[in-house]
Structures are given as C-alpha cells and as structure tokens.
Amino acid sequence: MKATIEQRTTASNLDLLDRYWRAANYLSVGQIYLLDNPLLGEPLRKEHIKPRLLGHWGTTPGLNFVYAHLNRVIRALDLNVIYICGPGHGGPGMVANTYLEGTYSEIYPDIGRDADGLRKLFRQFSFPGGIPSHAAPETPGSIHEGGELGYSLVHAYGAAFDNPDLIVACVVGDGEAETGPLAASWHSNKFLNPARDGAVLPILHLNGYKIANPTVLGRMGDEEIRNLFRGYGHEPLFVEGDDPMPMHRAMAAALDEALAAIHKIQTEARGGKRSERPRWPMIVLRSPKGWTGPKEVDGLKVEGFWRAHQVPIAQVRDNPAHLRLLEDWMRSYHPEDLFDKDGALIPELQALAPTANRRMGANPHTNGGLLKRELRLPDYRAFAVDVKNPGQTVAAATHELGKYLRDVLKLNADAGNFRIMGPDETASNRLDAVFEATDRVWMEPTEPYDVHLAQDGRVMEVLSEHLCQGWLEGYLLTGRHGFFSCYEAFVHIVDSMFNQHAKWLKVSRQLSWRRSIASLNYLLTSHVWRQDHNGFSHQDPGFVDLVTNKKADIVRVYFPPDANTLLWVADHCLRTYDRINVIVAGKQPSAQWLSMQDAATHCDAGIGIWTWAGTEDATREPDVVMACAGDVPTLETLAAVDLLHKALPDLNIRVVNVVDLMTLQPRQQHPHGLSDRDFDSLFTRDRPVIFAYHGYPYLIHRLTYGRANHDNMHVRGFVEEGTTTTPFDMVVLNGLDRYHLAIEVIERVPGLATRAAQIKQGYRNALIAHARYVREHGEDMPEVRDWVWPNGTGGATPAKSGG
Amino acid sequence: MKATIEQRTTASNLDLLDRYWRAANYLSVGQIYLLDNPLLGEPLRKEHIKPRLLGHWGTTPGLNFVYAHLNRVIRALDLNVIYICGPGHGGPGMVANTYLEGTYSEIYPDIGRDADGLRKLFRQFSFPGGIPSHAAPETPGSIHEGGELGYSLVHAYGAAFDNPDLIVACVVGDGEAETGPLAASWHSNKFLNPARDGAVLPILHLNGYKIANPTVLGRMGDEEIRNLFRGYGHEPLFVEGDDPMPMHRAMAAALDEALAAIHKIQTEARGGKRSERPRWPMIVLRSPKGWTGPKEVDGLKVEGFWRAHQVPIAQVRDNPAHLRLLEDWMRSYHPEDLFDKDGALIPELQALAPTANRRMGANPHTNGGLLKRELRLPDYRAFAVDVKNPGQTVAAATHELGKYLRDVLKLNADAGNFRIMGPDETASNRLDAVFEATDRVWMEPTEPYDVHLAQDGRVMEVLSEHLCQGWLEGYLLTGRHGFFSCYEAFVHIVDSMFNQHAKWLKVSRQLSWRRSIASLNYLLTSHVWRQDHNGFSHQDPGFVDLVTNKKADIVRVYFPPDANTLLWVADHCLRTYDRINVIVAGKQPSAQWLSMQDAATHCDAGIGIWTWAGTEDATREPDVVMACAGDVPTLETLAAVDLLHKALPDLNIRVVNVVDLMTLQPRQQHPHGLSDRDFDSLFTRDRPVIFAYHGYPYLIHRLTYGRANHDNMHVRGFVEEGTTTTPFDMVVLNGLDRYHLAIEVIERVPGLATRAAQIKQGYRNALIAHARYVREHGEDMPEVRDWVWPNGTGGATPAKSGG
C-alpha cells in the first residue's frame, strides 16, 4: 500500500461511481435478456429477447456495487486486489465488470468495446457455444466457480497466504454463510500471518434471501451478527440500506476504514510491533436482493425478496407487459448516459477503472500459472532406503517421504511457495521429518511446552479437511505448490470439492489464456488396512472410485508398494501440472521390495512383472498371474506366493505389481493405459488372474472389463468388513489375506484343486487357527506377523511400453 | 420436567459424585490397558497388560465428568436425557458409564457386574472379536459414532425435533468444533421450536488439544468464545479449572442454571408467552486433556496436553517404570473405595445412577426402533397420472410426487414423526404441493410478504446439505421418518456422512437388541441432464457409484422413468427399514410412459421389456437390445427406436427399461439381483446391447461384467462433458442422444452398417444441424423438442423373477 489513506470521497466522484455501477447493472440485465438491440437504440421487441432466459439477477447488483467500490480504492491507493465472488451464479456481474474495465475484450477480442461487442457479450451469456451462467474458468479475474456454495472464503485465504502485497476481497452471499465449509472458514484468520501473508477482506453480503427462503444470517439482528463475527476474530463494519447515494457514501467510508485497519495491522506486524493475532476488519453489507430491479412483477414483491434470485421477469417474449417492464427497467439505468452512440463506455467512466494488472479481471494472481515458479526439488534418490534383497529391509514409507518433503520445504523456503496441508495428522501420518525444516503455522497464543508451532510455519493443520482442501486450492490457483496428506477414509469429506476442482481444471485446460497451475497432490495414508485400531468408521478406500470418474487427462492414481516407489511417485507428482494426483501409501513399518533403481524402472512403467517374486519358468506361460496394487495387497500376495511355492514348487506363478492404476485402462481411455498387446503380455489371454487390490474390487473390473482375459480376473479387495481388530484380521475379514489368495489360486488353476486338496485344507486350518489366536491373544500370530520374504534378488520387469 | 429446580448440591453428594466419576475413569483406563487383574487385587504384572494398547484417553475423563453430572440432574428432576458424544473415540468412557449404571450388563449379560464381568469388560475393548475402540452401534445409549468428527450437534438437533420432553446433551470436543459441519450446526437453533421440540444442551468441551495440536477454539479467550456463541444464539456458561471439587461445584451450578433456563424457555413457549427465538443456554467446559491421568511420562508433559490424546503410557509391557506409572495412576482412583471385593459398584454409588429408562444408556430414544411408529401412507394410486397411451401425456414427475408427500404429511401430522429436508430446494425441485399441508420451519423473524414460513413447519430448508443430512439421521435414529430431496450434483457434499450412516446401519443390523429404524430416503433431482441452465458445476451423477460400494443389504438405487413409477418407488421406499434408498428422477415436464397399473408391475419387477416400445417380432431373438435407466436416457432411447423403426422397419429392437439398478447385479451379490437365466432372457446371450444410462457408464459395466452377454454391452452415459447449454445439447455432448444411440445400433448390429450407411449419414447430418441450430437460436430444434412417441399401447413385461 503505497499511500496512507487520505482519499476523501466527494459527492461528484460518488456520482460517477454510481453511474459506473449502473453501467454494470445494465450490462448484467442485458446479458440475461437480450439477443440484440444492446443499447436500446430502438424500442424492445420480442425478437430482441433470448428464447431461454437463464441467469441469476438477485445477487448481481450487490456484486457490482462491491466491484465498483473496490475499483475506487485500488486506484486511490494503488492496491493489489483480487475479487472472490462467492455467489458465482452472479456471473453476469463479473463478466460485466471485466468488460467495463477492458480486460474482457483483451482476452476475448471478438467481444469488442462497441455496439457489436455489446451485442455479442449479451448473446453469448448462458447460450449454447457461449459462456456459462456462473463465474467460471472462462471468466477473467476468477479463481472460484461458486456454483457449489461454500468455498469462497477458504479460497480467499489460500490466495492470500505468502502474498504479502495482495488483498483478497471476498464476497459471501446468497446463503453461502449457512454452509458448513464457509462457517468453518472464518477461523482461517487464525492461520494468516500479517507479517508474511496478504489480507483477506470478507464482505458478508446479506441481501436477505437464497433461492426461495430468507437466509439465516440475513434475518439475524445486527447485535447477533456483531457478536458472531467478533467471536470469529473480526471487527464488522456495517453498510446497510437501499438508497444508492447514502449507500455509496457508507460503503466508501467502510472500505476506507477497513483498508486503513488492514494497513495498520500489516505495518505493525511487519515492523515487529505486533505479535498477537489481530482483529481483522470485515464489511457487512445489507442491501436488497435484486437491488434496482423491478419492485413488483404481476403484483408480487420482487426487489428485496427471493423472487429476484434468478430471472425476475419471466414471460418477456410472450407477455407485452413484461416486455415493457423489462424495457423500463433497463432504461432506468440511462444507458445513453453511460455508453456513447458507438457503444463504448464514456471516457469519464472508463477512467474509474484501474489500469493494466491492477484491474481485478487482469490481476495475474487470478491466472496463477502466470506467476508460477518451478518448485526446486531435491534428488529423490538421496532418500533411498537401501534394499539389497527384497523383503529383508523394514521401513515406514511415509516416514521416508517426510525426509524428502523436509528438503522440498528447505529448498523453497526463500521462494515461499510450498505448503503442506493436513487435518492434524502430519505427525500421525509419520511425515514428522518436515518439522526439522518448518513448523505448523499458528497465530493464537502459544505455551512454553508447545511443539512446532510458529507464526511463520509452512505446515497447515486444522481439524477440517474442507479447510485443508480449500486453502490448497486457493494456493495452487494463485500459482503456488502444495501437498495434502489425509486419512484415506476421511478424504471423502471433500469429495465434492475434488469434483469441482477437477471440473475447473478440465475447463481451464481448454482455455489458451489460462496458464497451467501445479497439480493438487493427495497422499492418502492411515489407510483402510491399517485402521485396525480405529475401526470401521475409519475404513473406506472409495475415494479412488470417485477420482476415476473424472476426465482421464486430469487424474492419476498411484499405489506405491514401498518407500522407494513412494519417493519416486511423490517426486513425479510434484513435477506435474493441471492434474489431481492421488497417492495411496501406508505409514506403518513394513517390508521393502525394490531398490531405488528398480523402483524407478518399475514406477516409470507404472506396472510390471516382478520376476524375482514369481516362480515363473520363462519357457512357458504361467499357470496363474497374481496381481497386486497397494502395499498391503502386495505383502499378502508375496506371502501367498511363498506359501504356494513351498507347497507346490512346480506351480508357475507370475507376479504383476501395479503402481499406476491408470495403466489398467485401455489406452484409448487414458494416456497411461496399456495397449491391449502389452496388457495381454502381462496378464496373459487365458490364465487365471488373482488380483489383490487395495480398495473396492469392482473398480478393477470396471477398468479392465474390455481386456481379453477379463473373464479370468478374480479380484479381491475391501468388501466393507471392518472393525477394531488386528492388522492381519482386517485382511482376513475381507478375504484379502495370503491364505484366501492361495486357496483361490488352487481353486482357479485348472486341475490343481484335486491335486492340492490337502494343501488347501491346510490353509483353511491356518485361518481357523488365526481366528482362535487373535481372539485369545489380541495380536496376530507370530508366523504371520514375523513372516519375511525368503532371501532372493530384486528387480522388476516393466511393461513393454506402459507409462 | 416434573419439578422446578430446587436441587441444591451439598458437599457430601458432590463427594459421592466425584467417586462415581473416579469409578468411570478407573474403568476407562482399565479398558485401554488390562487383560486381567481388574480390581488390582495384586500388583500389576506384564501379563495383565494387553499386547496392543488401543484407545483414546484424552477426552474420556471429561466425557465421564459430564455423564456423572447429567446423572445427578436426571435423578433430581426426573429428566429424559440422552447423551451425544461428539468425541466418540472416547468410547471407553461411554462403555464405562453404561456399565456403571447397569445398562451394559442387561444388554450384554456376559459382562456381569462382578469381577469376572469387569475382566471381560476390560478385555473385550478394542480386542479382536470384542468391541470397537469408538462409541458405536454396539455402545448402549449411542446414536452417534463420532469416528469422523463433525456431526454430533446436528445429530443432537435431529433427535430433539418433535420430542418435546427430551433433552439432548451434546458434547463437542477434541477439535470437532473446527470442522465445517459442526461450525454450521450451531445455527440449528434457528430451526428448533421450544413449544414443540425438545431441547439441545451443547457442552463445548475445550480440553485444549486434538491429536497433535492445540485446538482453535481451545486457545481462544473467554471473550471471543462468549461473543461467538452469543452470535450463534446461545448464552454460554463457563466451567473452567482442573481441581476436581471446585469443578464439581461449578459444573453442578452451571447445569442447574442451564436446565432452569431451558425450563423457563419451554414453559413460556408452551404457555404461549414467547414467540421469538430464545437464547438457549450452553456450557463451555474447560478442563485438562487427560485429566487425572499421568502428569508426565518420560519427562514429557502429558496431562493437559495433546500427548494424552490416545494411550498416555505406551511401553507398559516392556518398561517396568511405565508399568509402575500405570499402576499408580489406576490406584489413584482408589478402586477399593468404589467396588466391593466381588467387583460390584458399592451401593451408595449405584444409587447415583438414574433407574430404568432414565438411564442414558437405556433411554429408548437411543434405540429408535423401539419408539418407531409405522408411517401412515396414502394410496399412491390415487395420485396416478392418467396415461392412456405411452408418450402422449406430459407431467413433471416430482410435481406429482409432491402431492403424494403432501398427503403423507397430512396423515402423520398428529403423530409428528415425518419431516422433509432440502437445501432450499423443495419448491425448486417442484415438490411445492407439500406447502398445502405444512410450511418451512422458521424461528427467526418473519415479514408480512414471507411465504410458507412457520414455527411449526415440517419442511426443513437450509443451505447446507450437511445439516439436512445430519438432522435427518438424528431424526431417523430416534425412531422417526423422513425424506431428503437434493440436487444430484451436490449430494456429494455429504458423501462421507452417507458412508458413516451406511456403516452404522450395517453394524446395527447385526445387533439383535438394536431395533430397525426407518430408511434414509434420498430423492436426487435437478439432475445432470437438466442442469443445462446452471452448467458444469451442477452436473455430476456420481453419488450412485459411491452408494453401490456399500453392503448390498443396505443400499437400493432407483431410476423411475416417469411420474407413476416415481410414485410407486417413493411409496415403496417409505415402507422400508434399515436401508438407504436413492431415487433419481427429473423435475421437468416430460412424456409419461406407463399407466399406474403398468408402473406397479414394472417397478415390482425392477426391470422389464417394454414390448410396446420395441419392434420385436416374438418369433425370433431381437437384433439388438436397447436398454435404458433414467428418465432422460429412456426418452432418448425411445426416440432412437422411433427413428430406427421409421428408417429400418424390419429391424427387430427390444427395449429393456431398468428402474431398480440392483437387478443388474448377480443375485449372489444383491438380493434384488437377477438370476443369470432371467438376465439372459432380457439381454440375450449374444445380441448387441446399447445401454443408455443416466450416470457414469462404467457403473453398468461394473454391475454386469460377469454376465454372459457382457462383451456385447455398450454403455453410454455422462462422460464429464458439460456446460450451460440446452437440454438436448447436453445429451449430444455426451453421446447419449437419440442420434448417437441409433448410429451405434447401426454399427453394432451385424451386417447393418453397410445396408444402412445412408441412414447413419442422415443421423450424423442431424447432429450437425442440431449444433448449428442451437448455436444460432439458443434453443433446441423443434423436431427434437416437440418429438412425441407415436401413438400405441402401453405396458411393460416384467423380468421373470426379479424383485
């Protein structure tokens, strides 16, 4: 903030500002209604009206009001401000304002700043082949869709972290404050450091109504609202009314006061004068829904009521009175005072918009790829677990990853563009080596015995997956990098946020002007097979099923079976863009299979034969393929191979390990998919495949149903049997353990069932003995717990051309 | 509340209460640690200690403190109270208290009230074959798992609605208040009517820490906490400290005050003296995490810190100093003063527990099936849309359903046991006929122009799917009935709540003492194919994929293709128990296919051939099967049949319509699954099947991969292509429209492609014409929009034995 706040608002400049607002309102209404006659050069006729009237008016005048006032302070104080529009369905307003300031025509030159451009601007809105009805990736200046309400404020904070010069104005409205994620987001101020981060200026827009009801907060009195937001750590400034000019004066004064308060907080914090969490300003804007629109339609109240939410006058094409009402409404903005006869905004109004990158539609933070810097990554091989022989070394995969992430934090500490998110689980997920490089960010008071809490920490922990996800999205969308570790079962809490982010990425990739942003990287750990201690509520591996519904060019799913493969995969994911990478890996100490060199070869292919693990005789096709994806399924598969090899030494077993789940899909469906030829060379065309999979078994069928050998694929995985028990009992309950796998091999290999009936019975007896043992001793049988892969040599044979 | 509050707490009865608390704490520690020696009759030895120490101590003493104090007021005032334990991982406390009051031994007679019972009680906890570590369905008095934090308070409100005599004490702790759903749940008080509903008494347990961090609210000062909760509409009463006896006095006083306030509020409201929303009391309990546990272990702070969260002393079996520390800790409770030598709680402590159903573990509201009354349902046939010939009548399916639901509301108005939930969308989803029978519940001020808002409304609308879902869960779990209508895309917001409820039902069904509760019924409408106006963010049909991962005996998914089938399905769902029923149906006016009689036959089978729609010659196998599930896919399939029949009159097409998606699964996997024989008789064993499906096409492959004809199944559905456009353009973008379907028929029927090359080209041309038309006119081509199924006769041939 270059100037101190001295800017006084005079009647004349507020009059101009009011006209600017009217211009935005006029363009908003035009987008909803008009095909043609954009300047109302002639009386409105039916042919000028769109056949389908789509859009949301109610929130829009308020959004426009805020935009115009932000323009004023940006110019006056040369501020760096972006605008997060919570009620993103007010898309016409965001489009109108970025058009008025000139950004829109720069990005979309076809929509010029003249009458023809206006006509196209109106026509394209919510029109086939045009633009969406909501603020969306297509909208300049937007990092936030807002179709699914709830995430505006958490996105705002994500944008503000590590951007000390940035002010993120965030409008929350139309009922969004009732949602859970938004209600929790207010506490984000406990994680924002005024010395290092930018500021968030929440503008709670209480226009009173949502689709068909009053809003809860809209009907609360000022005293409750003040208490609530003081409780959240804010000082609310109220702007209330419906008469435009007094409202302009009140809003200008409130904004001046809020910005002065922000300036003071930041100056004190950066000057070392303040250490406690400040009380940040916010604005509570009470204005009528559908402000300046028709007061009544067909005798029913519209302005200031929920009927203004979408299209206030609905029968414009068929009802001449409605057509007249629309024309009166549009002319009430006096377009002739706003645009010249060629359709250009008049110069004195153009002068109200900020210029160049100070325009909120052109601010590079809203097209984060422009600002993105490459992450500096350490050599992942330096963190290799030394695996001389498979299965002989024990390590905790996530613990090793923690050391790698620690160095990522160190290497990018100066750039300040990498954060780790986790719902209070970074240490629990054994990534605690990161605390050698940084701390958890914490703005509340600390006690002498606190551990790894600091105002400048880069690990963000809060018991809300919504906040972790939303902060990270906002951080990535503004050009930074991050990593989110989460309990596997509870990542479902953010299913819907994942959906929306995947949609955002899909559309953004189709827009040439949107630059690539860093991928959203999930580590799902404390997974289903190692939640034996927390029980059934913590056991759900279904997030991957959701992920694989999304566009193939967006999503990746990895199941590294040990530490070295996890290191390779994590390093790979941190180098990618515009994707959502899901890594599923356990945190418990367990056997390590591949040296780093073998891990790299294996992961690069994504899938491969583990020749050292199989008992294959290279001269003939295997009798059976034992496939596995996931650390625990890999362990159980190898233990089953060990059992079978000892009992049936002539059985020809091939072991295939899958790291990159997408290799299973047909190449036509996913860029990582194996060709049918490569798939068949791994899985054969006719041998039984016993597939031990980490999650719900149906997913493997869904990915492979078109493959030649699919009828012979028998998949085992989590079948929703869980409780608090031992680790091995968990796999037994779901039939994924070594004995069940070995039994199925015996049953599926032609001719083997008879010959190996005794052996099979032995496995059944082992299961009975196990059940008895765990219920008596409360822990797994030593022969299971202490099982070690027999000494051998390592290495993987990659798929012929997967990857 | 029979008595006014006069109960004074004397030093002597608080001393007894303290001993009761110590008994609960002792039993909690015993469960975490001990295999044997439950009364410490001999010095603790390694053999007495469990091999795996699982459980959460930190929250438990606070939970026990609250339980003991609630016992006091229940007895003193003969109150009807249930206890919702937000930090459900404090399972040992809930088990301990229900054991102390005698409930536990009544439900599980094997766990007697003697030394042997104590030994078993300790041993079974978190032990294979025993009970889970968290409060769970197995726990008497629980309706709330609490493994996934966030839903305690919303469950509490669900339980309180329509239970005027009930007080729901709800402990929120261990960081749960940081979650989004919980943060929004406080606003539930705007929907609780003190004249009709019970009371919720929130107890915010600020013990300062979650797993590895301070909690956000725990570090906020009293002033911010007071502001925050006054803002939420509560009056917080603070109980703070760590010295037991002053804390007992403070807690007793706070509870007395809170209950007096509740009594006053209810009395005034029920006497007609109060109409505005009251400020409800709540308690803020600040006590040390792991209170009364070891202060330090190995020189590190434990009591009053996050290290007390789980098992405070970890090396008890191997470290004699730890063993000694545990013994000292347990003896600090003086078990010899609490239990007699046979292990029974001494009589003066037994006397502190309420009796019979007043015991919180035995309160029938926590085993809602005990209180459940059958819903009175109108005859769904009375709401039939008159369909003389298929396709000739137009109706909006959900609009018709609204009339049925209106009468359900009327018939059960006196019983007061049916509610409808929806996130501000009941009218938008065209269920508005329900407002002829009731209103939306609304406790905030109303304006003269408000519509259908009332303090005693039975429709609950709030812009939070979390609240809708959670209220309904709490309502169902306490023995009532309900219906939740939701935008299809945004039901993903509650994916994780759905998961947890499904898990709860699965376990409950295995417990003979838990009685069946009403099913959770979802209507997903405003679905993917009719969100053309809101765009991509509103288009996601993936919830069903999540649902089908759950246990077959819990979940059902229905795709009624028109109004009469929707009526049948909704009526059916409202009659079921212990299930989660998902109904997907559109709200837009569209063609009706089946008379009510045909609808009943068809829905009863769940799947069937629509002979009137096909062009089958009964003397031979069809050339192609066109299958459809969902209203829009059914429409497009029939339009494709119409196209093909006109162009290729000798083509033998069978139409199969799927209402009950579970019929597609093998019978071994789902009770509704068709036998292979029945499946083959519908889908043939070798003819091409062109399957038009409502959602992601992979799901159909997953359900049918094992069927004989699977290799010939070609499924079309939503492939994640969406935007704001026209309805027909939406299906075209995803290749689900009539032309793409007809083209695929031509390509898949052997020999047809050559013969019908011209026809196929005609369909391609139609798609090009469509694209041009919508981009020019902004609406669908009249020939598509106005297409009507040619006149014929209706009726469906059901599957041979599906159902």
Automatic annotation (TrEMBL), chains A, B:
Entry GO MF terms: aldehyde-lyase activity
Cofactor requirement: thiamine diphosphate
Keywords: Lyase, Thiamine pyrophosphate
Gene3D superfamilies for this protein: 3.40.50.920, 3.40.50.970
Annotated SUPFAM superfamilies: Thiamin diphosphate-binding fold (THDP-binding)
Class in the EC hierarchy, top level: lyase
UniProt-listed GO biological process terms: carbohydrate metabolic process
Domain Xylulose 5-phosphate/Fructose 6-phosphate phosphoketolase N-terminal: 11-370
Taxonomic superkingdom: Bacteria
InterPro entries per record: Phosphoketolase, THDP-binding, Transketo_C/PFOR_II, Xul5P/Fru6P_PKetolase, Xul5P/Fru6P_PKetolase_C, Xul5P/Fru6P_PKetolase_CS, Xul5P/Fru6P_PKetolase_N, Xul5P/Fru6P_PKetolase_ThDP_BS
Residue ranges occupied by any Xylulose 5-phosphate/Fructose 6-phosphate phosphoketolase C-terminal domain in the UniProt entry: 587-789
CDD domains: TPP_PK
Alphabetized HAMAP family for the sequence: Phosphoketolase
Matches recorded under NCBIfam families: PRK05261.1-1, PRK05261.1-2, PRK05261.1-4, PRK05261.1-6
Family to which the UniProt record says this protein belongs: Belongs to the XFP family.
Name assigned to this protein: Probable phosphoketolase
Species, as recorded: Bradyrhizobium pachyrhizi
Organism taxonomic ancestry: Bacteria, Pseudomonadati, Pseudomonadota, Alphaproteobacteria, Hyphomicrobiales
